[in-house]
Fold this protein.
Amino acid sequence: MKKLRVLNALTIAVFTLAFTACSNDDDNSNGNGAAEGQLIATVDGNDYSSSDTNVGATFFNGLFNITALNPTTNEVILVTVNGAAEGTFDLGPDNGGTAVGSYNINGENAFLSVAEGGSGTITITKLDTENNLASGTFEFVGTRELTTGETETVTISGGAFTDVFLTTQIGGNPNNSFEAEVDGVAMNPDAINAVEITFQGETTISITALNNTTNQNIGISIPADTEVGTYEFSSFPTSGAIVGQYNPDLGGSGSTAYSSIDGTITITAYDTAAGTMEGTFEFTAGDFTGQNPETYEITNGVFSVEF
């Protein structure tokens, strides 16, 4: 279940970096060391910094996320807290999967604070939904298992963020359309977005559809070099893969992201110059690790988006 919560955090991260903006003033600080609109940390003794559009926060339906990218080093730091408020929260493996710290570099497998041997805390000192600002401090030890069976560790210390812009609602592009049924029931999303994201030289079209009333969310990630045609979904975001995700309650107490374990998508029209894409899709969403038997059938999917 903790792996699925991490997948949910990665879904939130797409929202965070794609739809937030923040101010940056290197001469202002609230005393935690980070300037306004900035996230800083030390990663295994090396300085880390992210600011401007490369850092953002979201808070909706009780789920808080702070995501930062250092575009020079391709390092990503992400911290997610379910049931968030101003206060201190445990990021370690015994927190029941309610919070997680993650560190990733160059798109490799992430170091997780909830993995065995991990630990950490985050203190949210400001969660201002009126002025849309978030501040806090954090630290965590993340671990990951190598293919050799050995465990690798990273230490994130001195983490701090000051007055990072906080998104509390997800709006949609009125020119976009998206339809799908979940187990035979129409999802009826009211916030539909598509963005073009470039990371490590690879560009991806990320389509997200959210029903702000039910908090149902469907996301589709498509490599930008995909041509018109029919393709199979993959279960995990690797180079060249098309991945679908479904979350029945994005940000809720039972928030879990399910990945496409099978299914197909057909790109019917794609204009790279105009930045538009149309297509149809269907997939079965489930736990690709096989630990959770629950699945959802996503059918009659149709979309038309601009990015």
Observations:
- The CA atoms of residues 116 and 182 lie 35 Å apart.
- Residues 2-19 form the longest helix (18 residues).
- The chain has two domains: 2-167, 177-306.
- The chain has one helix and 23 strands.
